[in-house]
């Protein structure tokens, strides 16, 4: 069915974090910093930080999706971005919710490549058509994903006041 969706609950999210952390540990990778892609990767980055005992967390804002299956032509990295000097020589684990087109991960990977010792990527979901294949993936799907933090409409519409 075309309208079937992958539904991630908070309980499954907890399982995903633990499974991804186990994948990282089992691979022998020891990140110095977890770089979350905002907004979708923030929860995963925090969870991985606790599970891997990494207290050095940072975020990068990338705007790409504007709605359900609606996106800008290319992702845009929004300021503030982490300073290159703060990343120099570090082993970085990039965290995001989904590798859909892979374009968001691609722009962050390219940003990191010039500065860090090594960067690996962890995502909850990977789509088969992504141009970037993360190192650590919890599940693969072709479906649209309902995340627990974004499946309900916001309480506030920043373009027009309180939502109804």
From TrEMBL:
Keyword entries, A-Z: Glycosyltransferase, Transferase
Domain of life: Bacteria
Domain Phosphoribosyltransferase: start-end pairs: 9-150
Presence of keyword Glycosyltransferase: yes
SUPFAM superfamilies recorded: PRTase-like (SSF53271)
One GO molecular-function entry: glycosyltransferase activity
Record keyword Transferase present: yes
Protein name according to UniProt: Phosphoribosyltransferase domain-containing protein
UniProt organism field: Nocardioides panaciterrulae
